[in-house]
Structure formats: structure tokens, C-alpha cells
Specification:
Blueprint: H1 2-48, H2 67-72, H3 81-110, H4 116-124, H5 128-148
Helix pairs in contact: 1-5, 3-5
């Protein structure tokens, strides 16, 4: 009778371990999904709170916060490839445009202009197409995140 008890105990232990393993997988899955949701929420908040980049007079928009991006760049792999591609494209363009704008301001300080109209025309060309592209990329990133926003529920 002892072998029967031993095999039942072994079977019970095996079933208990399998149940614990499955439970842990489920917990990990929901934890990962909740973390993705929090990450998407943070990115959406940061992107939506950024000013409109297409306004040429709104050069301060280039200094928009990228705290969420910088703090979570190592977690981007949790998101879909489309989300990652569009988020990285936006922030890369933003940083590149900041650098171009800074270089342009230095150039404006050192360049000689014949009159204020020439200065105004030159200043107006401060990469308007790039700024428009940044706004488009921001909207693309928002759209990509929104497409996956409710997937975790």
C-alpha cells in the first residue's frame, strides 16, 4: 500500500507544481500587459501635451519635454515594432531639429544682413519643412500608440 500512497503524493506534488507554474505565467503576462499600458499612457501624455510644432513662431516647442522618452528608452522593446519605430522617429527628429535650430541661431548671430527684411526672411526659413515633419511624426506616434492602447484589457 505504501507505493500507492507515494505515487499519489508524487502526482499531487507534480500537479501542484504545474498549477503554480501556470499561475505564475498568467501573473507575469498580466503584469507585462499592465506595464505596457502604463508605458503607453506615459508616452501619450507626453506627446499630447507637446505644443504644435508647425507654428514657425513657436520655436519654444523644440524644447518640449522628452522626459518620458529618456526615462523609458530601455523599455521600448515592450511595445510593438510600429510603435517603437514611430516613437523613435519622432524623438530623433526632435533632437536633430533642436541641434539644427541651435546651429542656425549661432549662424544668425554671426551673419551680416543688409536689412531687417533680409534677416526676417532668413529667419523664416528655419527648417519649416523639418518642423512640419516633426509634427507629422508626433501625430504618427500618437496614432500608433492609440491603436494598441486598449489591447491589454
Amino acid at each position: 500500500m505504501a507505493p500507492f500512497i507515494t505515487s499519489n503524493a508524487a502526482l499531487a506534488a507534480l500537479l501542484g507544481a504545474a498549477g503554480a507554474f501556470v499561475a505564475q505565467l498568467i501573473i507575469n503576462h498580466f503584469s507585462d500587459e499592465a506595464q505596457k499600458h502604463r508605458l503607453r499612457t506615459a508616452f501619450l501624455a507626453e506627446l499630447r501635451n507637446m505644443p504644435n510644432f508647425t507654428s514657425v513662431t513657436n520655436r519654444a516647442a523644440l524644447n518640449a519635454s522628452q522626459e518620458v522618452y529618456l526615462s523609458n528608452v530601455n523599455q521600448l522593446g515592450m511595445l510593438t515594432d510600429d510603435e517603437v519605430e514611430k516613437i523613435v522617429a519622432f524623438y530623433s527628429d526632435l533632437v536633430h531639429q533642436r541641434q539644427r535650430d541651435l546651429a542656425r541661431r549661432v549662424e544668425l548671430q554671426t551673419k551680416k544682413f543688409d536689412d531687417s527684411l533680409q534677416f526676417a526672411e532668413y529667419r523664416q526659413t528655419l527648417s519649416e519643412s523639418q518642423v512640419k515633419r516633426i509634427e507629422e511624426r508626433k501625430n504618427d506616434a500618437i496614432e500608433a500608440i492609440e491603436c494598441n492602447y486598449d489591447d491589454w484589457r
